[in-house]
Amino acid sequence: MQLKPIISPEQAVEKIKPNDRVMIGGFMATGSPLNVINHLVHLGTAELNIICTDTGYADKGIGQLISSRQAKSVKASHIGLNPETGRQMNTGELEVELIPQGTLAERIRCGRAGVGGFLTKTGLGTTVEEGKQKVTVEGEEYLLELPLTADVALVKASIVDKAGNCIFNKTTKNFNPLMATAAKLVIVEAERVGEVEADHFTLPGTFVDFIVAV
């Protein structure tokens, strides 16, 4: 069994560089790696390209990176709980791409699988289709959606063993295990480092590079 390095939050955020594409798990800050995010805000690394389901709240989770103007761009499904994201989008301070949630999940899945994209009707006739290629198959029109990958994924797990195998408690799972499969470097914030039975974990440690123990 290959053991994964256990590092501090300070060491974790030093691995994130300006202009990195950073996937961050969580929805409405539930299941987000809040401790690591707090240290990233403190460090001040800017020009980040964030991929997430939503931008949390202005003072909690991913939203803190928006409020502190550390994000250059955001790809997300939902920004309504964080008015600052909308404000920066409308003033041109922040590049925002709104992606239907199912499409976001499938784009990440394609990224992890090395698939060149997929066809969907979701978003046809809306602003979602702007700038995207349309493909006709048997007389039906689809949007071609391209894969998403990241330089770094920041995820949160309930229990992580020393080999990096992860268990997620209930809805904290959300996008965490999916994002961990589509990034070059994966840092998991663990509520607890302990024993994980082989048939119980959701995310195998194969995908994990570093563990941050809260």
Give me the Rg, rounded. Answer: 17 Å
Cα separation of the termini: 23 Å
The share of residues in helices is 10-25%
How many helices? The count is: 6
Quick one: overall form?
globular
Strand portion: 25-35%
Q: Would you tell me the overall average pLDDT?
A: 95
Structural class: alpha/beta
Element string (H = helix, E = strand): EHEHEHEHEHEEEEEHEE
Can you summarize the main beta sheet? Answer: 9 strands, mixed
What's the number of extended β-strand segments? 12
Unreliable residue runs: none
Structure, described:
The longest helix is centred in the middle third of the chain and has 13 residues, at 101-113. Helix 3 links the parallel strand 3 (48-51) and strand 4 (71-76). This protein starts with 5 loop residues before the first strand and ends with a strand. It is α/β, with parallel strands linked by helices and 214 residues long. The strands form two sheets. Strands 1, 2, 3, 4, 5, 9, 10, 11 and 12 form a nine-stranded mixed β-sheet that branches. A three-stranded antiparallel β-sheet has the order 6-8-7, covered by helices on one side. The chain has six helices and twelve strands. It has helices spanning 9-13, 34-43, 62-67, 83-91, 101-113, 176-180, and strands at residues 6-7, 21-24, 48-51, 71-76, 95-98, 118-120, 134-137, 140-145, 150-160, 166-167, 183-193, 210-213.
Structure summarized in a few sentences:
The chain is of the alpha/beta class. It is built from six helices and twelve strands.
